[in-house]
């Protein structure tokens, strides 16, 4: 472009900018004059009421009407404005801006134009003004982080001509304090805000009703502020117990990772904690007791705050007195049965630090752990029992990441090859569509061992069960030991009942890992896992004292720092602004239906259908990622539809017909609610949200074929991902990068299975797939043969030449009787882990013999219902049953329905009840053995019931007159008394019994009958008239029938009978109301002349 043309364009843009600026100024001037004249007119007329529409027109809508010129009043004002004195207008505008600024800094920001108007009689409740709403939303947006205050100022200046109540500065909008008290602290500065102001902000009435004592957890960690800078934040964070939102107590900012002056850093905190503990916390004219529950820190912070040895010290363990060994430049802790440390012992060691070195020099073991006097000793006496072993840093980023790094980038015989890494990465990436929305980070193909803590947790507890399945058998069993132990400790249900088993599995994992990877693997984090079971037994599940909530807050703190100028003051002001804007109220949680869908014509329920429902931070959807959940009775279903009704949302789902154990080592997976499921039933279940126990993670087990060798129309062959294949109009098409792509980028896209982009990919028609492969390496090896022959069969694939079979050598220490997987016919070259299952079986057998002997010696008058039932023999199973059509189901940890059990195995007997069978288990067995035997009994009972149903089906086909199949243990019908009705309700509380009863009742009606007659027939079968007289539909002056399980069974029977047509549930409800209404007259024998009340109540 010519330089003159550039100048011309530049001038044109400058003129347009000046013109737009003049328009905005002119609009603001007209608006100010309109407001001034409106106020004067209102004062002269002395009007007492102003219509709400006129009020709105003078506020938000005036500028738009003036600018568009669509309103006649706006046109008149614009014409009047042409004769206004510009100098007078400028003075008025300045006075208005000054008055608005002063009002914003002194009051709550309300506009005088609307405060002068009287309240309307049509509004019984005060309605928030739109300008105030805009102001509040801007305040919340500015405090979210990630936006500089200069941008907020610029936005306020742009909005102020239209919204008069907005200030011109963010300081007035957010009520920013002028001064921040910061003290020097050695190598940096410290801002201490305090615990009490944050408690006033976060405490709610709901929290105080559930707690008698205000207890908080404390976290101290460091976070770097900028790249290539030594400036760090070390915040002191707190969190109310049973709350998920942490808060800031104080922040240190300086060079280095830790404060050099620890006494100054903790001085204000120690003083406030002592004050709150002695005097209590004043809240709403009441004094509440205060205490600190846990200190949740990583190892480096714990060593600094407690003044103890770090990970390189010989006596670095905080829970026991083990002495480390320096091995391969690492401090290895190999002894796992040393004496435990106590709070009193820690205080004694700290008191010795005040003595001269010569007086306690000979006591070499005591003075080597504590190296100083911690300031926390002034307010805390439990320096051992109150400091938790953080699961995030120790388990996920410590032990499991170390285990994964040894495999991914190690140099021993255990390290993974390139093909194994690729298979694991692709398998993990294939789980992305199946991963529930509860996980913040979805699975993706692994490119390195650098993973986030949330990703490591998901892989350890869920994905690893399937992803690591093809590893060497003994390496995978080592992973299973770690997975099972951590899964038990994370569970609110099992962390106490199976705590002893978790301790055995962790010790077996540590010992087996030492044999696999060497002594260099057993460092501080690995050794400290030995103490995790006792931590969880005393203080709750593992996730209750994790650092994940605090790490999230650290990220938000870092995002609020917008410049390098006084970062500590920036965070301090933002935090005090939040306190000024906060409202400690809790909104009631209600189910929220989302994404309305087109009504399914096959759905029998009448109502609006939805695809998603959100309740208590949990999302249930018809999509495969969020559709799997478990019911209260243990049944696993997949949601197929969500229907809205008057009584609440109805979940429609189908259950899996077959469920079995996914693994057998170290314990049966069914004990932890981990199953292998198969084949959804055709019959649908209708449930409420109360019937759902927890959400599940459904992972496919079938072999994924990620790559395919494809022949294009020009007879060229290429190995491409299967995600690049599609079908249109019955023809197979393939997507391939366009010609401008470079070769190395195309190879990288194929290796990473990149998403196909229609803008950069060409569509190729009439392609032909020669073969599918799991691995890209195998596909490329067979690609050359495909180019020569244009044919690939599974038995003609390129195979390496036959080699002479090596003589197998068997390890005498491997006594495993489990069969190997089909893919691995040879024995593992790595040492095998200990076998728990055989010892468990032998213990059960021995206990069975003891029970038989004791039974023969007891008196024959003993009740047979108290006899323990134990299997004589247990079938020894392989680790997996290879069937690729199954899916693994794992319940998500953290479900609110799983409540920790407070009972433990003691000298008394433990009675567990499963369905209709009560089994007495003697306390000589552990909880895992109880559950193993009971799971076998449950499996036997399930098989017997299935055979009984099959036999009933066969009998009905052979003998058509045999129509009625009476459910097992169903009460006698019709019900006569209230006691029988209550017993029937308990029977129908089980969803399986309710489903069977619905099928049974459906046999008394047929589709040719009207819905009203069907309802009457079932009600006469179920209820006697004298009992029905005590009920009506909603329970007004009587008992409510709509909330009973019998009502649900009745609806289910009608739906089963009318499967091929839609059912108007309102008509059924009306029939129930009418039948119950005339039940007293039928019970008294009343009838109209010539009519019979025994057949129907419609005649009344």
TrEMBL record:
Keywords associated with the record: Receptor
The organism of origin for this protein: Frankliniella fusca
Biased composition (Basic and acidic residues): 1-27
Region entry Disordered, spans: 1-130, 785-836, 849-869
Entry protein name: Transient receptor potential cation channel subfamily M member 1
Keyword Transcription regulation part of the UniProt annotation: no
Top-rank lineage group of the source organism: Eukaryota
Acidic residues bias (residue ranges): 108-124
């Amino acid at each position: 472009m010519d330089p003159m043309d550039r100048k011309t364009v530049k001038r044109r843009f400058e003129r347009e900018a000046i013109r737009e600026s003049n328009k905005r100024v002119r609009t603001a001037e007209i608006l100010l004059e309109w407001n001034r004249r409106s106020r004067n007119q209102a004062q002269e007329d002395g009007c007492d009421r102003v219509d709400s529409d006129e009020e709105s027109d003078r506020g938000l809508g005036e500028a738009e009407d003036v600018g568009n010129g669509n309103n006649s009043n706006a046109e008149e004002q614009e014409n009047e404005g042409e004769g206004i004195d510009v100098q007078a207008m400028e003075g008025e505008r300045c006075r208005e801006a000054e008055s608005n600024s002063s009002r914003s800094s002194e009051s709550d920001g309300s506009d005088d134009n609307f405060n002068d108007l009287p309240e309307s009689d049509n509004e019984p409740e005060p309605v928030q003004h739109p300008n105030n709403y805009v102001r509040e939303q801007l305040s919340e947006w500015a405090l979210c982080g990630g936006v500089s205050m200069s941008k907020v100022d610029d936005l306020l200046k742009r909005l102020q001509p239209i919204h008069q109540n907005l200030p011109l500065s963010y300081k007035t909008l957010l009520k920013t304090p002028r001064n921040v008290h910061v003290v020097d602290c050695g190598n940096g500065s410290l801002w201490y805000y305090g615990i009490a102001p944050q408690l006033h902000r976060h405490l709610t009435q709901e929290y105080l009703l559930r707690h008698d004592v205000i207890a908080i957890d404390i976290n101290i960690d460091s976070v770097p502020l900028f790249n290539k800078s030594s400036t760090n934040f070390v915040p002191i964070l707190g969190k109310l117990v049973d709350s998920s939102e942490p808060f800031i107590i104080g922040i240190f900012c300086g060079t280095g990772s830790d404060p050099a002056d620890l006494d100054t850093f903790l001085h204000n905190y120690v003083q406030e904690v002592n004050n709150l503990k002695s005097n209590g916390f004043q809240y709403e004219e009441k004094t509440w007791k205060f205490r600190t529950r846990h200190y949740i820190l990583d190892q480096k912070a714990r060593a600094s705050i407690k003044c103890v040895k770090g990970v390189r010290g010989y006596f670095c363990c905080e829970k026991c007195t083990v002495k480390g060994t320096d091995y391969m430049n690492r401090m290895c802790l190999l002894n796992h049965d040393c004496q435990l440390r106590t709070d009193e012992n820690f205080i004694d060691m700290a008191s010795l630090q005040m003595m001269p070195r010569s007086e306690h020099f000979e006591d070499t073991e005591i003075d080597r752990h504590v190296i100083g006097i911690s300031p926390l000793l002034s307010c805390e006496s439990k320096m051992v029992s109150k400091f938790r072993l953080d699961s995030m840093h120790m388990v996920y980023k410590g032990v499991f990441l170390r285990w994964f790094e040894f495999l991914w980038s190690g140099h021993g015989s255990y390290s993974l090859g390139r093909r194994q890494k690729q298979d694991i990465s692709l398998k993990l990436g294939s789980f992305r569509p199946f991963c529930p929305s509860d996980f913040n980070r979805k699975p993706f193909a692994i490119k390195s061992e650098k993973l986030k803590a949330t990703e490591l947790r998901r892989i350890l507890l869920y994905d690893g069960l399937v992803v690591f399945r093809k590893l060497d058998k003994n390496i995978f069993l080592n992973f299973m030991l770690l997975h099972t132990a951590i899964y038990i400790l994370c569970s609110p249900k099992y962390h106490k009942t199976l705590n002893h088993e978790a301790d055995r599995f962790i010790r077996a994992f540590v010992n087996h890992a030492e044999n696999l990877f060497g002594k260099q693997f057993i460092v501080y984090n690995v050794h400290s896992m030995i103490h995790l079971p006792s931590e969880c037994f005393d203080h709750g599940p593992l996730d209750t004292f994790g650092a994940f909530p605090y790490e999230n807050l650290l990220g938000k703190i870092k995002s609020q720092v917008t410049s390098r100028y006084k970062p500590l003051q920036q965070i301090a002001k933002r935090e005090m602004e939040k306190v000024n804007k906060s409202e400690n109220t809790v909104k009631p949680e209600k189910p929220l239906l989302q994404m309305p869908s087109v009504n399914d014509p096959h759905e029998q329920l009448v109502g609006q259908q939805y695809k998603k429902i959100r309740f208590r931070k949990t999302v249930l959807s018809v999509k495969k990622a969020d559709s799997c959940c478990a019911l209260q009775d243990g049944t696993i279903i997949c949601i197929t539809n969500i229907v809205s009704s008057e009584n609440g949302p109805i979940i429609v789902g189908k259950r899996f017909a077959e469920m079995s154990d996914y693994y057998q080592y170290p314990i049966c997976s069914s004990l932890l609610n981990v199953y292998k499921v198969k084949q959804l039933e055709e019959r649908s279940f209708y449930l409420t949200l109360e019937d759902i126990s927890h959400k599940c993670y459904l992972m496919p087990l079938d072999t994924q074929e990620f790559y395919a060798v494809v022949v294009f129309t020009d007879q060229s062959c290429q190995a491409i991902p299967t995600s690049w294949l599609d079908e249109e109009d019955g023809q197979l098409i393939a997507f391939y990068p366009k010609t401008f792509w470079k070769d190395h980028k195309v190879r990288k896209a194929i290796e990473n299975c990149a998403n196909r982009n229609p803008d950069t990919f060409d569509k190729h028609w009439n392609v032909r797939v020669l073969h599918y492969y799991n691995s890209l390496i195998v596909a490329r090896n067979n690609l050359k043969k495909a180019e020569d022959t244009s044919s690939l069969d599974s038995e003609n694939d390129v195979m390496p030449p036959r080699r002479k079979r090596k003589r197998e050598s068997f390890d005498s220490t491997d006594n495993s009787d489990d069969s190997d997987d089909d893919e691995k016919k040879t024995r593992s070259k790595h040492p095998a882990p200990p076998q728990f299952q055989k010892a468990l079986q032998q213990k059960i057998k021995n206990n069975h013999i003891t029970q038989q002997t004791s039974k023969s010696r007891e008196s024959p008058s003993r009740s047979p219902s108290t006899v323990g039932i134990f299997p004589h023999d247990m079938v020894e199973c392989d680790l997996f049953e290879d069937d690729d059509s199954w899916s693994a189901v794992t319940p998500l940890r953290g479900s609110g329905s799983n409540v920790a059990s407070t009972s433990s195995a003691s000298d008394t007997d433990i009675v567990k009840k499963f369905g209709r069978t009560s089994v007495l288990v003697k306390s000589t067995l552990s909880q895992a053995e109880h559950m193993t035997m009971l799971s076998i009994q449950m499996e036997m009972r399930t098989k017997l019931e299935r055979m009984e149903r099959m036999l009933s089906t066969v009998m009905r086909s052979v003998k058509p007159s045999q129509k009625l199949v009476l459910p097992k243990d169903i009460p006698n019908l019709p019900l006569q008394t209230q006691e029988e009705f209550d017993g029937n309700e308990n029977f129908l509380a089980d969803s399986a019994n309710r489903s069977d009863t619905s099928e049974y009742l459906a046999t008394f009606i047929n589709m040719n009958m009207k819905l009203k007659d069907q309802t009457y027939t079932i009600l006469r079968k179920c209820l006697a008239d004298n009992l029905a007289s005590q009920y009506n539909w909603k329970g007004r002056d009587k008992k409510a029938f709509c909330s009973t399980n019998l009502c649900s069974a009745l609806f289910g029977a009608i739906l089963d009978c009318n499967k091929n047509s839609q059912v108007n549930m309102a008509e059924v409800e009306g029939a129930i109301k009418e039948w119950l209404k005339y039940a007293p007259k039928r019970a008294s024998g009343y009838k109209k002349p010539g009519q019979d009340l025994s057949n129907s109540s419609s005649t009344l």
